[in-house]
Amino acid sequence: MQKPIYLDYNATTPTDPRVVAAMLPYFTDHFGNPANTLNAYGWSAENAVKKAAEQVAHLIGCKPAELTWNAGATEGNNSVIFGLIRKLKKENQKEPIHLITSNAEHWSVLNSFKAAEEFENIETTYIPTNADGIVTAPELKKHVRPNTRLVSLIWVNNEIGSINPVEELAAFCQAQKIYFHTDATQAVGKIAVNLQNSNIHFLTFSAHKFYGPKGVGILYMRGHNPAVEIEPFILGGGQQNGRRSGTLNVPAIVGAGFAASICEKEMLEDSRRTSELCAKLFSKLGEKIPTLQLNGPPLNHRSPINLSLIMPVSIDLVLPALAGLAFSQGSACHTGETSSSHVLAAIGRTVSEAQRTIRLSLGRWTTPSEIDEAVRLIFNAFQPFLTATAPIKKNDEPPYQNQKN
Ligand SMILES: Cc1ncc(COP(=O)(O)O)c(C=O)c1O
Q1: Confidence band (pLDDT; 50, 70, 90) for 335?
Q2: Is the domain of 288 the same as that of 254?
Q3: Is 327 inside any structural domain?
Q4: Above pLDDT 70, what percent of the chain?
Q5: Nearest CA to ligand 1 atom 5
Q6: Which residues lie across from 20 on neighbouring strands?
Q7: pLDDT of residue 237
Q8: Rounded CA separation 83/77 (Å)
Q9: Average pLDDT over residues 155-176
Q10: Do residues 279 and 241 both lie within one domain?
Q11: What number does the ligand 1 atom closest to the CA of 77 have?
Q12: Ligand 1 close to Cβ of residue 70 (< 6 A)
């Protein structure tokens, strides 16, 4: 059976074969524990981890010592939020703490905020985005309180490809002496991330979104002007200077480093190519499906790999006809109930619009002929409905209430 065309690079990327080749010796020949520097096996593993940190640091313009390895962006986001809460509480048990995020974040941030409210007695605010899914500095300003200690805002949205003005938001926070964290999982390796003269305090991301392996992530904590620290979130044997305990996953770390070094060389060209292919896909589909709408910002102001499109009818109605494509939906059906995307709700999309939303995301190996084939498959799937359905009137639909915030 022919494999479906993979248009789900926002969900995960295939590991680049060059990365796999770089990782392999670390399963078999150099399998030592980098924490055990009493033998040559440990030294070679330790050196490999050091090199990987240099490669990642080079890609994002920071120092290797500012990086901590972990199991992925979910862990990174949890550890920034709870590690900072622990640190602030240790400094002053009585002072109330207020944290800010937006209602268009990844669940690893949103659910950490929920748990912080429930178990840590933390005050939280979920600020609204604009219609493109962007949080602006003036909007952030409105929600800051005297006890706001952390602002956590996504850099590039994983569902709708919007790009927050993180440097402007971080500069505002720095001036207010508020910690600023950004979930840069969909940014690193896709758009320029340079922390050299940045006001960002914490940045989290994951190797499997930039052609590295799954299960390895990176937390950046600024080491200067001011240096920031949090209480460790994962406790144990004190590896990584006590910042995150546990034996390092050396092959995955080697893969993350190598993937970063490839991105450094190829990212510009990759992004130029995927942007062009996104534009081609959007315009060809638009020619055939006149009601087609884009969620999030216009093409040249969004993630270079993401298209979030509102189709004429619910995606569920055409799933069998789209079997040749791997993609994501704006809503999902769990045990008979449809849950719509909170991100689409945040930008004011209705339940019906969420049900009609398809996310197509492109990457390093997407080809022009795959785009042609995707257009053909999508058009064929929706064609029966194009003549049969009356044009959809936007105002007929009830606004979707975002249950989560
Ligand atoms: C924006 C964003 N943050 C966090 C995550 C979680 O990353 P991980 O799979 O490494 O835990 C993802 C993955 O889907 C993501 O897209």
Answers
A1: low
A2: no
A3: yes
A4: 94
A5: 73
A6: none
A7: 96
A8: 10
A9: 98
A10: no
A11: 4
A12: no
Query: Domain ends where: 261, 286, 311?
Result: 261
Q: Last residue of a domain, which of 261, 283, 301?
A: 261
Cβ–ligand 1 distance for 206 under 6 Å, the answer: yes
pLDDT of the residue at 401: 35
Q: Check pLDDT > 50 for residue 393.
A: no
Atom nearest to 154 CA in ligand 1: 1
For the chain, state the CA radius of gyration.
22
Task: Please tell me the distance between residue 74's alpha carbon and the centre of ligand 1 in angstroms.
Answer: 6
Closest CA to 303 of 118, 108, 114, 164: 164
Output the six-digit token pair for 27. 């399963």
Whether 304 lines ligand 1, by a CB cut-off of 6 Å, is: no
| pTM reported for the whole predicted model | 0.94
Residue 84 vs residues 65, 81, 116, 168, 231: alpha-carbon distances, Å: 19, 5, 11, 22, 6
**DSSP-derived 3-state class of residue 124:** strand
Residue 185 inside a domain? The answer is yes
Q: How many helices (H) and strands (E) does the chain have?
A: 11, 15
Q: Worst-scoring range by mean pLDDT, 2-6, 208-212, 363-367, 398-402?
A: 398-402
Which carries the bigger pLDDT value, residue 361 or residue 392? 361
- The residue whose CB lies within 8 Å of the most ligand 1 atoms, and thus the one to mutate among 70, 158, 253, 308, is 158
Q: How far is CA 260 from the centre of its chain?
A: 16
Residue 33: which domain range?
Answer: 17-261
* Residue with CA closest to ligand 1 atom 13: 11
**Together in a domain, 253 and 392:** no
What is the layout of strands, in order, in the sheet containing 202-206?
A: 67-70, 217-221, 202-206, 179-183, 148-152, 98-102, 123-127
**How many beta carbons lie within 10 A of that of residue 175, not counting itself?**
9
Same domain, 255 and 327: no
Claim to verify: residue 251 and residue 274 sit in the same structural domain: no
Q: Count of domains in the chain?
A: 2
Contact 161, 308 (CB under 8 A): yes
